[in-house]
Design brief:
The complex is a heterotrimer of chains A (385), B (297) and C (295). Chain A has 385 residues and is an alpha/beta fold. Chain A is 47% helix and 18% strand. Chain B contains 14 helices and no strands. Classes of the chains: A alpha/beta (385), B mainly alpha (297), C mainly alpha (295).
Chain lengths: 385, 297, 295
């Protein structure tokens, strides 16, 4: 039996060799090509509670979508390596090196947030590997031609929010609360203050809180005693939720309007804040009810897996994967990292899960996907008209 | 080749953290209960980065400037702490680390606040780190053989005895703080010069735990101890990535087991055993036998 | 607003005091600086949380379960970490290092158990009722916190100074070998002191977890740092000192945050630590009430 099989095997190989010799050139283009992309997220460590697992899920749904619809082009399949950087920048840097040098990845997605992405971006540029950071800091793009950002920079969302506050809510006097140890949060707060003042608003106070804080009584008491008509809140979802509970307990005037950055568009925020969250309004990158084709597929797949709606983290990762897939498609078969980078920079009007419109990079490689305004009512997040 | 490229950042990291571990090592060797190394590293990292980016001093002079800042910080810290003992030093130095994190966050115009310092030129690659580390290890090995090193040993083993021998404990504590400050600042500076960017909480609790674990694990007496300890702690989670989730658990378990069952650390214990065997084989001269007792006790 | 902020400071300070008492007790009696005390506090909060959410206990019962549970965690810490270290003639430095290790283990376990999520006690577990006292808004919660802390501290003083085990404990604090010669069973004393320290930390954990609407695996770290300053200011080993210093630190921290800057509150509190160490390393309250010191 075994010998017979061996002979058969030999015959097969022989015929394959003959065929192969004849078809060598055309076989080259028809051969199934496996494209490798690498992703790294904080799957453990302090950031994991609100980021890593959701990012991973978004990525997995994207892989499924990309391979089902042959988004990379005929005969090309996508393989994604997902690794854990533990929210640690040293691990992020060492993973970036591994992806570029021994895993032969065509591009890297992830790292998550400016804190981790800023130190990683120069490494990606040194290694000459396309790096799409799930972060908003323009400094990442400025690190070199190989690094990109996925999230709109602070200016665009805060411009919308400040204008909304001044013109729709007609508020004049704001108290600002932000995460003092987070660069992105400080930038958002500064951008909001700038645009709010341009619209004739005034800033009554600015208070930095930190992610380790739980005792917000001193600041909450102070803000409750201020003559303000709007409170701007910017921190990670769990901290923002907790702050809101404590500032309400400290006796904040119920007529004070609440606005926030898109960070609070997370179920974690609504869970921690409970009834205190009602009425808060914010611009956001993502809402599960947006009608786009990609978003519909994404939301359906996510609900099937988890029995709940996806958050913006999952949508970011899903979108990031789609963008890289489009770039790899545009770069053509057998593309190298340079071609993928060039194609990524040229992406225009890609249908993704994010925002209200299509995703494009402008001439400065800054992302653009119309943001949407959301609010919390009766403990649920809803799209504002 | 790919292997070397992949693991070079890891190797660089081991070199840098060994320098930081040496800062901790000097403190422990002198009998200080100090955990101030991350604070010194923060001072060195920011001073080095600012000098390099804002002045035309160049990397070498900037690094020396950073070390000078570390010495000053060490001496200031020694004012209240050199005359205190034990737990007070631990509490105060942990507080010092926390103050440095807060100040780095607060002094935004100088330090960049939470954003930290970015786009720092990479002037300390492997080719710089290795010679620096070798020079530092050699220097410490030499210091260990001088009167200062022997005084450190005496104080660590029993400071009341050391005082009765006429050793000024406070003075040697000041030396140890200054030296630990200089080396810690050098380590922080190298970190800034190698990884393009530094942020305030890089110099926080995780660094404190890593350097203390490295010295305890490797050994507090021989110069090779911190190298072995650091390499082990940094390579281990990379080798067993599935276990990376439990990295802190492993670190904690190792700390407890080593301090209970192997309090001299890996290198010192091996060295002790080896010397003992040689002594039993009669290869040691009489006076060396006497000297054997010192570094291992 | 000043009166309101002083009340905020008093409440948080009272909880700091509760937490610091355990730390200072174990140090005063056994010369053990237990850096895992913050992790015991955190586990107390977790046990209380799980007793409420999984065990469906009423709050008072969950509180008792958490306090006893944290006491057991603390005793386990002594049995698994400090006792083997004593057996192997570990020194004071060894205990500090071992407690850092224990802290890492306890924190990582909590992180795994909760997937690093921020948890909170169910809303309405404590009735939200506010009273107006001479222009100061005070909640029922704040009143209950202050009252419980007062009762617990008085209970501790009663134990230390009015019971035989308490006197044995104080004897160990003064001189352990002599106390043993006089027939004190050291095992019993270590058990009692670690159990009490754990109970105090557990009580503080549940109270802070409810009051600040947040239970996370990192919650022990921040309190631990404040407690360092409290025990140095109060004098290591001093019960009354820890209580007074806890309240002082709570107020200083609150007022700095409210009137100066949130960024600087840590630096101010720790700056104070260095000033105390420079001018009065034995703490400010060690002079008064020396009879109420365990060591």
């Amino acid at each position: 039996m075994a010998a017979e099989e061996g002979v058969n095997e030999m015959k097969k190989i022989a015929s394959a060799v003959v065929l192969g010799l004849g078809l060598l050139l055309s076989a080259q283009s028809l051969r199934a090509e496996e494209v490798v992309i690498a992703a790294q997220y904080p799957l453990s460590g302090p950031m994991a509670s609100y980021s890593g697992p959701f990012l991973k899920e978004g990525t997995e749904i994207a892989i499924q979508r990309i391979n089902e619809t042959k988004m990379l082009g005929e005969g090309r399949t996508l393989k994604v390596l997902i690794e854990d950087n533990a929210g640690d920048r040293n691990q992020a840097i060492s993973l970036m090196n591994r992806f570029a040098t021994s895993d032969n990845a065509l591009a890297v997605l992830g790292v998550y947030g400016s804190y981790l992405s800023l130190p990683t971006a120069p490494v990606a540029n040194e290694l000459k590997i396309p790096f799409l950071a799930i972060a908003a800091s323009p400094a990442i793009v400025q690190a070199g031609p190989w690094s990109f950002i996925l999230i709109e920079q602070p200016d665009s969302s805060m411009k919308i929010l400040a204008q909304y506050a001044a013109e729709q809510l007609k508020v004049k006097n704001a108290a600002l609360v932000y995460d003092r140890a987070n660069d992105a949060s400080v930038r958002l707060k500064d951008a909001f203050a700038k645009f709010f003042k341009e619209h004739g608003g005034a800033v009554a106070s600015e208070d930095g809180i930190s992610q380790q804080d739980t005792n917000f009584a001193p600041i909450a008491t102070k803000i409750a005693s201020e003559k303000i008509d709007v409170l701007y809140l910017e921190s990670v979802p769990s901290v923002a939720g907790n702050f809101l509970v404590q500032v309400r307990q400290a006796g904040l005037d119920p007529n004070v309007k609440l606005i926030a950055s898109g960070q609070v568009s997370s179920p974690v925020f609504r869970d921690i804040a409970g009834a205190a969250a009602n009425g808060i309004q914010y611009p956001a990158d993502y809402d599960a009810d947006m009608p786009g084709v990609e978003n519909k597929y994404f939301v359906d797949a996510y609900r099937k897996r988890n029995n709940k709606d996806p958050d913006q983290n999952a949508a970011w990762a899903y979108t990031g994967m789609l963008l890289l897939a489009h770039a790899i498609h545009d770069a053509g078969p057998g593309a190298d990292r340079t071609k993928v980078r060039d194609a990524l920079a040229k992406l225009k009007d890609v249908d993704t899960a994010l925002g209200a419109g299509k995703f494009s990079y402008d001439q400065d490689r800054m992302p653009d996907f119309k943001l949407i305004m959301l609010q919390v009512a009766n403990g649920k997040q809803e799209l504002m008209k | 080749m790919a292997f070397i490229l992949t693991y070079r950042p890891l190797f660089d990291l081991i070199c840098i953290y060994t320098v930081l571990a040496y800062s901790q090592y000097v403190a422990l060797r002198a009998g200080l209960f100090s955990f101030a190394t991350p604070g010194f590293a923060s001072i060195g990292g920011y001073a080095g980065a600012i000098l390099l980016k804002e002045t035309s001093l160049g990397p070498v002079l900037s690094a020396i400037g950073a070390m000078a800042c570390g010495v000053v910080a060490g001496l200031i810290l020694s004012l209240p702490l050199a005359r205190l003992r034990g737990a007070f030093q631990s509490i105060a130095t942990i507080g010092f680390v926390q103050i440095m994190v807060s100040l780095a966050l607060y002094a935004q115009p100088l330090t960049g606040g939470p954003l930290g310092m970015n786009a720092i030129p990479k002037v300390a690659g492997t080719a710089v780190l290795v010679p620096v580390l070798i020079a530092l290890a050699t220097l410490l090995a030499v210091v260990n053989r001088t009167g200062v090193g022997r005084a450190f040993d005496a104080i660590r083993q029993d400071y009341t005895v050391a005082m009765s021998l006429g050793i000024s404990v406070n003075r040697y504590f000041r030396y140890a703080f200054a030296l630990s400050g200089a080396i810690g600042a050098l380590g922080g500076c190298l970190l800034a010069y190698n990884t393009y960017s530094i942020q305030p909480d890089v110099f926080g609790f995780p660094m404190l735990v890593l350097v203390i674990a490295a010295v305890i694990l490797g050994g507090r007496s021989m110069v090779a101890g911190p190298i072995v300890g650091t390499a082990f702690l940094i390579i281990l989670p990379e080798l067993i990535r599935p276990l990376a989730d439990a990295r802190l658990l492993l670190q904690g378990l190792l700390l407890i087991l080593v301090i209970i069952y192997l309090p001299q650390g890996i290198v010192d214990s091996l060295n002790h055993r080896w010397k003992l065997r040689r002594a039993l084989n009669g290869e040691l001269g009489a006076e060396e036998k006497g000297a054997r007792e010192l570094p291992s006790a | 607003m000043l009166a309101q902020q002083l009340l905020n400071g008093l409440v948080v300070g009272a909880v700091y005091a509760l937490f610091s008492l355990g730390l200072t007790l174990v140090f005063g009696m056994h010369r053990i600086l237990n850096l895992a005390h913050g992790a015991v506090f955190m586990w107390g909060a977790f046990i209380g949380y799980f007793a409420v959410t999984l065990g469906h206990f009423p709050l008072w019962a969950a509180f008792i379960v958490a306090v006893i549970g944290a006491g057991i965690v603390s005793v386990a810490l002594d049995l698994c970490v400090f006792r083997p270290l004593r057996r192997h003639q570990g020194d004071e430095f060894g205990t500090i290092v071992a407690s850092i290790g224990a802290n890492l283990i306890l924190m990582q376990l909590a992180q795994q158990a909760t997937n690093a999520q921020t948890l909170r006690f169910p809303f309405g577990i404590f009735p939200v009722i506010f009273y107006n006292l001479a222009g100061v808004r005070i909640s029922l919660q704040q009143i209950v916190i202050l009252a419980s802390v007062a009762v617990i501290v008085l209970g501790l003083l009663f134990f230390l100074f009015r019971t035989s085990l308490g006197s044995e404990a104080r004897a160990v604090a003064v001189n352990e070998p002599t106390a043993m010669l006089l027939g004190v069973n050291p095992g019993k004393v270590y058990f009692a002191s670690f159990f009490i320290a754990g109970m105090l930390a557990g009580a503080a954990g549940v109270i802070l977890g409810i009051a600040f609407n947040s239970v996370t695996y990192v919650m022990g770290e921040a309190v631990m740092l404040q407690a360092f300053v409290v025990i140095v200011l109060g004098g290591l080993g001093s019960v009354v000192g820890a209580v007074l210093a806890g309240v002082v630190i709570g107020m200083i921290q609150t007022l700095t945050t409210a009137y100066i800057s949130t960024e600087l509150s840590d630096a101010v509190v720790f700056g104070l630590l260095f000033i105390v160490l420079l001018i009065r390393p034995n703490g400010f309250f060690s002079g008064i009430h020396t009879e109420y010191r365990v060591a």
